[in-house]
Design goal:
The protein is an alpha/beta fold. 32% of the residues lie in helices and 23% in strands. It has a seven-stranded mixed β-sheet, with helices on both faces. Strands 6-9 form a two-stranded antiparallel ribbon. Helix 3 crosses helix 6.
Length: 217
């Protein structure tokens, strides 16, 4: 089986002029990770439209591994998301001005999907590389979770040979410097190193490690 990676990020949202997930998807587009070519895709921060673009990319590229990235202001580390829930509940409008409240991502779909990436193995390898990382138990209820759930539903129902998941990254230093209150940030190169570790680990390890959650939080 030919290995192919799809790496997604988001355009800026919420008044920001940059988004580290976009920069990462663009920086790694066309690269190879352990022989697997990477297709980088920047999704609109818009409910439904983001999933339409993602579904098209899944059909065109037929990836064997999908890692979706998103920005999480206030987080200080690389956060491997465990679970996506079938709920849209936006605290702010998306980039099209839409703000769904308490609606399903997929009507009639399961309540939740778990990541099929080896998230604890990835966190352990990130720690071994000297990078801050943790397993996160919530991807929120904005467009990040919307894409995460939509991705996992698509893999479960239409692309069963592919594995996928979601990782949140902190703000860039330039974003954090513009805020009134101090907040965590991370250099883009550090994030890029972390994404590469995550991809290599996911390609290498199909079964996750059994490690107590407290050791990773």
């Amino acid at each position: 089986m030919t290995l192919r990676i799809l790496l997604t990020g988001f355009e800026p949202f919420g008044g920001d002029i940059m988004n580290p997930s976009q920069a990462l998807a663009e920086a790694l587009h066309g690269q190879c990770v352990d022989g697997a070519p990477v297709t980088g895709l920047v999704l609109p921060c818009v409910f439904d439209a983001a999933l339409d673009m993602l579904h098209q990319a899944l059909e065109v590229h037929r990836p064997t591994l999908v890692l979706a990235l998103g920005q999480a202001g206030g987080r200080a580390d690389l956060s491997l998301e465990r679970v996506a829930i079938n709920v849209n509940d936006a605290r702010i409008p998306d980039n099209a001005g839409r703000q769904p409240i308490d609606t399903p991502v997929v009507p009639g779909g399961p309540a939740a999907y778990f990541s099929t990436l080896p998230i604890k193995a990835i966190v352990a390898e990130l720690h071994a590389a000297g990078l801050p990382a943790s397993v996160s138990q919530t991807a929120g209820t904005f467009v990040c979770n919307h894409v995460f759930y939509g991705l996992m539903h698509a893999l479960a129902t239409r692309h069963p040979r592919a594995r996928g998941g979601f990782m949140h990254v902190p703000l860039l230093p330039g974003q954090a410097a513009c805020l009134a209150q101090p907040t965590a940030s991370m250099a883009l190169q550090t994030m890029r190193d972390g994404v590469l570790v995550a991809l290599r680990t996911a390609l290498r390890e199909r079964v996750d490690r059994v490690v107590g959650g407290g050791a990773l939080d």
